[in-house]
């Protein structure tokens, strides 16, 4: 039971931190997320543990990935990565939104390169004899 209470406090503190980084008041986030002000306050103080749906609404209001909140809340495991993704996630100078954008760009480049390396080389165009 104590573990559940710890998770509630952890996610609440994390949401408060993200709201602070975004320079959004509790009332503003409440409106953006469509969650009542008192309920959001209880989440931030660790009194209430939000559902996945509420976390998704809060993530939308903060403009961060819902996955980041799910990981923090213990709903999802931390995604596996490598040195680059670990470094991005560990960088405290970046907001969650900035981290997610960097990770999305990085992964899109990796997928693009993987597709390019596994596809067969295109045949060279035939050249017409010069007249």
From TrEMBL:
User: Which species expresses this protein natively?
Assistant: Prauserella muralis
Q: Which Pfam families match?
A: HTH_3
Which PANTHER family does the record match to this protein?
A: HTH-TYPE TRANSCRIPTIONAL REGULATOR, METHYLPHOSPHONATE SYNTHASE
Q: Where is this region: Disordered?
A: 111-131
Put simply, this protein is called: XRE family transcriptional regulator
Q: InterPro entries, alphabetically? A: Cro/C1-type_HTH, Lambda_DNA-bd_dom_sf, TransReg_Diox_bact_type
Cite the GO molecular-function annotations of the record: DNA binding; DNA-binding transcription factor activity
Q: Which SMART domains match?
A: HTH_XRE
> What GO terms fall under cellular component here?
cytosol
HTH cro/C1-type domain spans which residues? 15-69
Keywords in alphabetical order: DNA-binding
């Amino acid at each position: 039971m104590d573990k559940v209470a710890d998770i509630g406090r952890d996610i609440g503190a994390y949401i408060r931190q993200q709201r602070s980084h975004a320079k959004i008041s509790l009332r503003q986030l409440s409106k953006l997320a469509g969650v009542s002000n008192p309920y959001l306050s209880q989440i931030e103080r660790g009194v209430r543990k939000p559902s996945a749906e509420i976390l998704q609404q809060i993530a939308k209001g903060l403009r961060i990935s819902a996955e980041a909140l799910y990981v923090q809340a213990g709903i999802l495991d931390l995604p596996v990565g490598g040195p680059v993704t670990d470094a991005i996630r560990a960088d405290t100078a970046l907001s969650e939104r900035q981290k997610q954008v960097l990770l999305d760009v990085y992964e899109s480049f990796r997928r693009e390169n993987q597709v390019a390396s596994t596809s067969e080389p295109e045949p060279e165009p035939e050249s017409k004899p010069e007249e």
